[in-house]
Amino acid sequence: MAQMQMGAEGMQSLPALLQRNAAQFADAPAYREKEFGIWQCWSWSETAKEIEALALGLINLGVNEGDFVAIIGRNRPYLYWSMVAAQAVGAIPVPLYQDAVAEEMAYVLGHCGARFVIAGDQEQADKVIEIQDQLHQFEHMIYLDPRGMRKYDHTQLHQFSHVQDQGRAAYDELIGELNTRRGKLTYDSTCVMLYTSGTTGKPKGVVLSNRNVIESAKNSAEFDHLTKGENILSYLPMAWVGDFIFSIGQAYWCGFCVNCPESAGTMMTDLREIGPTYFFAPPRVFEGQLTNVMIRMEDAGALKRKMFHHFLAHAKKVGGDILDGRPVGLMDRLKYALGNVLVYGPLKDTLGYGRIRVGYTAGEAIGPEIFDFYRSLGINLKQLYGQTEATVFITVQPDGEVRADTVGVPAPEVEIKIDDNGEIHYRSPGTFVEYFNNPDSTASTKDAEGWVATGDAGFFEEGSGHLRIIDRAKDVGKMASGAMFAPKYVENKLKFYPDILEAVLFGNGRDRCVAFINIDLTAVGNWAERNNIAYASYQELAGHPQVLQSIREHVTAVNQSVAEDEMLSGCQVHRFVVLHKELDADDGEMTRTRKVRRRIVEEKFADIITALYDGSEQISTTTEVTYEDGRKGSISATLSIVDADVRPAAIHKVAAE
User: Fold this and answer.
1) What is the layout of strands, in order, in the sheet containing 116-119?
2) How far apart are CA 369 and CA 361, in angstroms?
3) What is the pLDDT of residues 386-438, one digit of tens each?
4) Is pLDDT of 516 > 60?
5) Is 296 exposed, middle or buried (0-12, 13-18, 19+ CB in 10 A)?
6) Across 109-154, where does the E strand assignment appear?
7) Report for 196-210, 383-397, 488-502: range of highest mean pLDDT
């Protein structure tokens, strides 16, 4: 912990932290990447040399102080180095989502006026070349992977390793300039610009300073007692603030090792090999893993399946209490220890979670059943509440005070207040500087005293001081009866079931709620194969009578659970449809971080919503879709509308109140 006791004095930029780590932890691993099945490793001293060579190469290429350098690609050490090298020369890194289509990239690159782009491979380079005529300030692109790039016009194209080689060759000539630029960096210098996901409009460029990033990293690392001995797996989008703070901010503050998977396809294998001690994932990752576990158990023998469910039921009863250090009887502890040998331990190792000391989920609310499942296994999974504009951290959960229904207490040095409408406001050292070139949005989000409006509705519990999030403030409404409408609460309960991938609830201002549901093709496809049910497409499987009946049973069970909550029992689902297509970011229905764009979905499928409310039993619809190669097309389907069982007594009770 010595590195954290130094304080932030003198460590006012990531390049400064890099130089400290290269001196103090010279031979300790800083980055690992799996390539061709073999883990490559770079120490902190080697990392500093790689970044310095790239920084010199950027100066040689003409990168000026204040320039924007866009970085596009999957998680690789070289691209993380690019962000710190850009900072070292006084430029501003702007990571983009690697799965963004060319049109989305055109907006971001044009908005920030990026003169330089660092692309991971040919696919990313091709997207930039496709929109090059729209980018009036673009001058040069550096590409990392040379495969497929040989016959391109290299007038404005440069291979990553060649830029480093040129930087090394010009060392004597340019090192003075690099040192001067590094020396100018202060706490108020811009560290990174991250674009919001754009759930309600065009993405906004969130400007974060060195103070925002380093103070947030320092406070959060001290809160969870992180050290240079941690190992993390960096696999989430580099354009997302969560990855930036975990894989760069905290990694540079603590000096721990960042591991990059070989590809998205090998991520789970690489996760098991690394066995991270500190892990972060959005709910969709935990949901997906739970789905895979349940699928595999359905394929297991009867004895193994019975043992799994028996010990899982016991874990659900006492696992969380044991993890939090609460009193548990001796016999229950012994049975849990046996379960750990036979079930929990092997399961955690299979998932890659055997060594996790601290795990976090954020980005979306996680279903309480999913959250409790992982904690019951002895995994110290916690929730945090944050935003890009807060440099992640608004609230965190202290060890021993972890619950599924709250997001914890204010993070260190964070102040929170709740206005009369229930909207949450905060201010902290992580509060963003501004939205780039958007003073009106900055002023409407952050007031003169530094308070930021989150757009989320919530309240502090009396006694515990924990914050509870109800929903997005704009999504919370009232039913026609006066009962509260909070869709996310019900959607998360539905998504606990392995065969439900996504759910979208409607009902604001209406007399009852209805829902769209996406099935999980992996889980439902596995069920179909086991039962010798043939299907030719997602659409065909989604409309199968047995699938609809299974989803109906899940909806009925969720309604029973929702009915027990007096505040929200009006949100029971009366009718639903299983959609004929998955909601997709390429079709504009979700953000790149897989948050549903509720308003767009509501407009796009308005005919289906009308049918859900007018008593129709079926609805024929045609929907425009975007294929992987960018071409547009359409799919048509006739969807069955299914009625669900509700608990009218609970609804009447709320209405009466």
Assistant:
1) 92-96, 68-72, 116-119, 140-143, 157-159
2) 14
3) 999 999 999 999 999 998 888 999 999 999 999 887 889 999 999 999 999 99
4) yes
5) middle
6) 116-119, 140-143
7) 383-397
Q: Please report which confidence band the pLDDT of residue 633 belongs to, taking 50, 70 and 90 as the band edges.
A: confident
Angle between helices 14-24 and 77-88 (to 10 degrees): 120
What CATH code would you report for 283-472?
A: 3.40.50.12780
Read off the pLDDT band of 199 (50, 70, 90): low
Give whole-number Cα distances, 258 to 239, 332, 649, in Å: 16, 38, 53
440 has pLDDT over 90: yes
CA distance 66 to 210: 14
Measure the CA–CA gap between 624 and 231, rounded to whole angstroms: 44
- Per-residue confidence (pLDDT) for residue 198, from 0 to 100: 63
Q: Are 193 and 436 in contact (CB under 8 A)?
A: yes
Domain positions in the chain: 26-185+230-276, 283-472, 477-656
Residue 63 gets which letter from DSSP?
P
Contacts of 303 (CB under 8 A, 6+ apart): none
Q: What is the pTM of this model?
A: 0.80
Integer-rounded Cα Rg, in Å, for the chain is 25
Superfamily of domain 477-656: ANL, C-terminal domain (3.30.300.30)
Residue with structure tokens 């790039």? 149
Residue 74 pLDDT more than 90? Answer: yes
Alpha-helix residue ranges (DSSP H) falling in 393-506: 439-445, 487-494
Q: What whole-number distance in Å separates Cα of residue 600 and Cα of residue 596?
A: 9
Rounded to whole angstroms, the Cα distance separating 380 from 360 reads 8
> What's the average model confidence in pLDDT over 116-128?
96
Are 26-185+230-276 and 283-472 equal in CATH topology?
yes
Count of CB atoms situated within 10 Å of the CB of 268: 18
Structural contact between residues 252 and 213, judged by C-beta atoms closer than 8 angstroms: no
What CATH class does 26-185+230-276 carry?
alpha beta
Quick one: CA torsion of 157, 158, 159, 161, rounded to 10 degrees? -170
**C-alpha span between 657 and 654 (Å, rounded):** 5
Give the 3-state DSSP-derived string for 530-572, with helices as H, strands as E and coil as C. Answer: HCCCCCCCHHHHHCCHHHHHHHHHHHHHHHHHHHCCCCCHHHC
Question: Residue 468: pLDDT above 90?
Answer: no
- Which pair of structure tokens corresponds to residue 410? 């204010």
